[in-house]
Amino acid sequence: MKTIRNKTCRMCSSKRFNTVVNLGMHPMVNSLVKKKNLNKKDPTFPLHVKQCKSCKLVQLREVIDADEIYKKIDYLFFSSDMPNLDKYFKPFALDIKKRFLKKNEFVVEIGSNDGVMLQFFKNSNRILGVDPSTNVVIRALKKGINTLPEFFTKKLSDKIKNEFGKAKVIYGANCIAHLNDLRDVMNGVHNLLKDDGVFIIECNYWGEMVKNFNYSLIYHDHFSYFSINVWEKFLKKYNMSAFDAIITPAQGGSLRLFISKSKRKKTKRFKILANKERQTNLNTFKKALEYRSNVKRISNKLSKIVNNIKKKGYTIAGYGAAAKGLTILKCSNLGNKHISYFVDDSPAKQGLYTPLDHIPIINRKEASKKLPDYFIILAPNYSDVIIKKEKKFMIQGGKFIVPKNEIEIH
């Protein structure tokens, strides 16, 4: 499997880095295993998080070639399979339409997956999705969402512009962290966006990761961990600037950033968030070291909790075979000796096995025949939805372990 070792920072090209946290060797979390392949050895790769000494971007330098993740295998994350994700994206889409769009203006989504958000523009605007995963794109096309099975690049932006014209809005929700060549992406955005257009990104936010001790977002699909400050410096290279920002609940706390070519008045909430980063010294290496300490502390705490439960003879199963959940387990050295099986609502994952430990993934109906004493929720950002859904399990004495913040037991 092809890996890429970046010699320079993907934002500023500096060659100077500090180590934030080294999580060791991990498997590709979305490379779930078919039963016929259980006898094969699963590859592992380093998860070594660095911070650029110059621009302060937190990032992985050694990454898996994106073709290996999105092109050479079926990508198993379908946005429409995630609980309530359509309800999350609908007000986001309506906000964009109300603030920035007129009828029939052109909208492009980068990393559009199966069209779960782009569908809300379908009846009022010309739309185009761009996503590299062919199997996911086929599902979008089935819904009538025009989508190209490609990575978004400057070269592709030329082709889109020639056929459709420039876009009034370009956005990418929870996909920018998956891209290694951010400079090529920004050249493409600048090329395709109208002069009065808006580029909107939603990405994992370093500020919330630090605040909530969230290390579940560190896996091979995520190449970078962003702050407002690093984006402000990066955007200057493209004569663009951010004018609005909000922290959303996605992924345990994401940054939604609004960017334009033309000078727009910065919103009050943008100024508050940018100032908070300065006041808390978010982008300093000292803050990164605090994060490292908390990651080690929380992962050790989870390990002790689970091992104590197992020593008492109780059974544990995983709820949600999410990518972030496999990082959580690996960091606490938890595996098939601790977790009997995973429940997952996504049909694309059912019948498969987790890499390395080969824990089976089953549907909720099958799990009903052998319910555990504890479920550990390994998609912690969906914990409230899951716990609400599983009231009967709790009434019958079942409990939930939620690896969120200081670890919760329900």
Written description of the protein model:
A 7-stranded mixed sheet has the order 8-7-6-9-10-13-12. By secondary structure, the protein is of the alpha/beta class. Helix 4 (154-164) packs parallel to helix 5 (182-192). It has helices spanning 66-70, 85-100, 134-142, 154-164, 182-192, 206-211, 228-235, 268-279, 285-311, 323-331, 364-367, 383-389, 391-395; strands at 3-5, 17-27, 44-52, 58-60, 62-64, 106-110, 126-130, 147-148, 167-173, 193-204, 224-225, 241-248, 254-260, 316-319, 342-343, 361-362, 374-377, 399-402, 408-409. The longest helix has 27 residues, at 285-311. It is built from 13 helices and 19 strands. It has a domain at 306-409: Rossmann fold. Strand 3 (44-52) and strand 4 (58-60) form a beta hairpin. It is globular, with a radius of gyration of 21 Å.
**End-to-end span in angstroms?**
41 Å
CATH topology of the domain at 306-409: Rossmann fold
Using the CA coordinates, give the radius of gyration: 21 Å
Helix amount: 25-40%
Strand residue content: 15-25%
What is the overall pLDDT average?
94
Model regions low in confidence, pLDDT < 50 over at least 5 residues: none
Write the layout of secondary structure elements.
Layout: E1 3-5, E2 17-27, E3 44-52, E4 58-60, E5 62-64, H1 66-70, H2 85-100, E6 106-110, E7 126-130, H3 134-142, E8 147-148, H4 154-164, E9 167-173, H5 182-192, E10 193-204, H6 206-211, E11 224-225, H7 228-235, E12 241-248, E13 254-260, H8 268-279, H9 285-311, E14 316-319, H10 323-331, E15 342-343, E16 361-362, H11 364-367, E17 374-377, H12 383-389, H13 391-395, E18 399-402, E19 408-409
Parallel strand pairs: 6-7, 6-9, 7-8, 9-10, 14-15, 14-17, 15-16, 17-18
Antiparallel strand pairs: 1-5, 2-3, 3-4, 4-11, 10-13, 12-13, 18-19
Helix pairs in contact: 4-5
